[in-house]
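[retry 2/3] DNA-3-methyladenine glycosylase I: previous attempt timed out, resubmitting with same input.
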Amino acid sequence: MSATLPGPDGRPRCRWCAATPEYLAYHDTEWGFPVDDDRRLFEKLCLEGFQSGLSWRTILAKRENFRAAFHGFDRDRIARYDERDVARLLGDAGIVRHRGKIEAAINNARRARELAREAGSLAAYVWRFEAPPETREGADSASPSPASPVSTSPASVAMSKDLKRRGWAFVGPTTVHAFMQAMGLVNDHAEGCAIRAEAERARAAFRRPG
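[retry 2/3] DNA-3-methyladenine glycosylase I: success.
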C-alpha cells in the first residue's frame, strides 16, 4: 500500500491526512514543522495527554475549546489552578472531561515552570531530544495518532523517562513520540509526500533553542 494519496490539489500527501478533511490543513501547515514557542509546545504536550485512548480527530475538533478553557495554555496561570478550576473544567462539555487528564495538565504546568527555570525554556529542554535522521521503515509510520504502527522511538522513550522522573504525568513514550512528530523534532512525513520537503526546509532553517 502506498504511503501517500493525492490531495484535492493532486499533490501526494501522507495517507493519514485523507482520513478527515480537518486533517489536511493541520498536515500541510503544522504537523512536522519545527516549533520553539513554549506555549505551543506546552499546549501540544497537554493535548497529546488528553488524546490518550482517543483519536487526534477528537482533540483537533475541540482544540479551540481547550484553548479557551485553559486560558490559552498559559502555564503560569494553569499552575495556579485549584479545585474550583478542576470542577469548572469537569463541567465544560467542550473539552475532554477526564479528571486524571485535567489534573495532569495542572501538574504538568507546575513542572513546566520548574523545567523552564532550569533549562532556560521549555523549548531548550525539548530540543535536546531531537531525533536523529533515520531511514523510514514502514509505509504508514507517519500518523498523528498513537495508533501508528511506529508509535515510539529511542528519543521519545528517553524524553518520556526524563519527564516522568521530573514528576510529569500522561507523558508515556507513545504520547511523546506523537508530540515530537507534530512539533518537528523529526520529519515523519512519508517519502513522496509533497509536504515532506517543505518541512525539511523549515527544519534546516530552524535555529535550535538553547
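[retry 2/3] DNA-3-methyladenine glycosylase I: The radius of gyration is 17 Å.
[retry 2/3] clearing retry counter.
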